[in-house]
Design goal:
alpha+beta, about 45% helix, EC 3.5.2.6, Beta-lactamase
């Protein structure tokens, strides 16, 4: 039986058993978690997730309080921190920022693979756009600076009441340490390092347990879920900034095989992916056919499987939760 079919059966059984008390996390979570552990961990090592219907009370989670390396999913927090400064009148979305060649970082090549001459300026709105939709690391580290740096982003999260969520380094620093480079992974430094040590490129998709054990730039699924819900509710940012950020996330081009991978065609998804070594993550919002929405954070780590298998694990969880929330609604009616 496929994972999502098993979970649908669990949901129907739970409704019949618990009636109006259905979806109390303590009642159904062990069965759901066991189903996911049985199937998904074979595809992606260690799994953690947390999900909640927008406006609902019950959280469906598995390993929800375990910390995972966020990789690029932490860019949601950076974007929110920048937008908080916009809301406070300290920055403007149409404010232009110089992007110099020495700022270019390695990674997805939205900027460093397109602009090779001096003279580039981008608005803050466009920096956030490529940071989220293309996971561009240059735009991310510039945005991190606009937010006030990693410590300022973490302080912003604590102000929201979100713990178990650390932002400690720029993406340049994270990637530089992952590859063992002598400094932040600027394009110039990385090219020089990879030319001198081409074997470094081979570790790109390999798990790095020492890296994963580093507590910096890690979060629990519950903490990421709390941020997603705070953004959606207008608590983390203003309603105007929320609409801007969710609009950007709805245009994400990375990770088409993750949260979106097994959902019915045309299902609205607003998300942000993250990938480094044996880590493959995806977080965001999924809209059900009846218009209800749920927020979800799926983290993986310590995976020695190919990236398509990790993507499939996330897709299985996403579809299982999609069906789960549908079954809950229908079974209660």
């Amino acid at each position: 039986m496929k994972l999502r079919h098993f979970i649908m059966a669990i949901a129907v059984s739970a409704v019949a058993t618990f009636g109006s008390a259905y979806a109390k996390t303590k009642e159904v979570q062990p069965s759901v978690g066991a189903a996911i552990e049985q199937v998904a961990t074979k595809l992606a090592g260690r799994i953690g997730f947390a999900a909640q219907e927008i406006g609902g009370k019950d959280i469906i989670a598995f390993n929800g309080d375990e910390t995972f390396a966020m990789a690029s999913t932490y860019k949601v927090a950076i974007a929110a921190a920048v937008l908080d400064r916009v809301d406070r009148g300290e920055l403007r979305l149409d404010q232009m920022v110089n992007v110099t060649l020495d700022m270019m970082m390695i990674g997805d090549a939205a900027l460093n693979g397109t602009f090779v001459h001096p003279g580039l300026q981008l608005s803050i709105a466009n920096l956030i756009e490529v940071m989220i939709t293309e996971s561009d690391n240059t735009a991310t580290d510039i945005s991190m600076g606009l937010a006030g740096g990693p410590a300022a982003v973490t302080k912003y999260l604590r102000r929201l009441g979100i713990s178990d969520f650390r932002v400690d380094r720029t993406t340049g620093e994270i990637i530089g340490e992952f590859y063992g480079l002598p400094g932040p992974a600027t394009q110039k430094l990385a090219i020089e390092a990879f030319r001198a040590r081409p074997e470094l490129l081979k570790i790109q998709g390999d798990r790095n347990l020492d890296f994963e054990a580093d507590p910096r730039d890690q979060a629990t699924p519950h903490a990421m879920l709390k941020l997603l819900l705070a953004i959606d509710s207008g608590t983390a940012v203003s309603p105007k900034s929320r609409d801007f950020l969710l609009g950007v996330m709805s245009r994400t081009r990375t990770g088409a095989s993750r949260l979106k991978g097994l959902l019915p065609r045309g299902t609205p998804v607003a998300n942000k992916t993250g990938t480094i070594g044996g880590v493959a993550n995806d977080v965001g919002y999924i809209t059900l056919p009846d218009g209800r929405r749920f927020a979800v954070a799926v983290f993986t780590k310590s995976s020695a499987t190919p990236e398509p298998d990790r993507d499939r694990a996330i897709a299985e969880i996403s579809r299982s939760l999609f069906d789960y929330f549908l079954v809950v609604k229908r079974a209660k009616q």
